[in-house]
Amino acid sequence: MAFAQELRRILIAVGASDADMFKGMMRFDASISLREKGAKDLNPRSEIKNLNSFKALEKALKYEEKRLRKEWEKNGGPLPRDITVGWMDEEEKTKMLREKETADDYRYFPEPDIPPLTFTKEDIENIRKELPALPQERKKQYMDLGLDEALAVQLIDQPELRRIFDAVYKKTNDAKRS
Question: Which of the listed residues 61, 92, 104, 175 has the most CB atoms within 10 Å of its CB?
Fold first, then answer.
């Protein structure tokens, strides 16, 4: 969950997306598999497609974990192969969509209209310098101004509110009153 939330914050921070999940600008696919404690090999996974909120992500993973545990107990082991399921929000359960194909079945091929891109170390460094502060750095900056963590996170999560705060702070140099 924390990873998904931080990914959303980063996409917003760098201007890659507004990542408004209510408008369908961002969705998640989540994979889960079970293995016995201490086992090193991964077992086949269940991939949950097109989750449109953090709440759905959390509920779907919890549901699918319980479902996979029941399957394991019933069949004496993990899934026989990877599967794809969909999350049914209203019913709060997953629905089998299909068994997963192998990578070969997807027949991946390079996009013919996009040439390969190459970057020098200098190119990468120049791009890095132009990037805005990432959420963790911005959070620290706000907290260094005396804001509590909850308010700092709220400013990071709400770009419009952050822009207003930053503009007022720039004029007043007073974080508490901004």
Answer: 61
CB–CB of 83/96 below 8 Å?
yes
Assigned token pair, 140: 């620290």
d(CA 15, CA 11): 6
Max CA pair span of the chain: 66
Q: Which helix (H) or strand (E) holds 93?
A: strand 93-99
CA separation for the pair 99, 85 (Å, rounded):
9
Q: Domain ranges in the chain?
A: 2-106, 121-172
Radius of gyration, alpha carbons of the chain: 22
Report yes or no: 133 and 144 within 8 Å, Cβ to Cβ.
no
Alpha helices, H only, the chain: 2-13, 54-75, 103-106, 121-130, 135-144, 149-157, 159-172
29 near 48, Cβ under 8 Å? yes
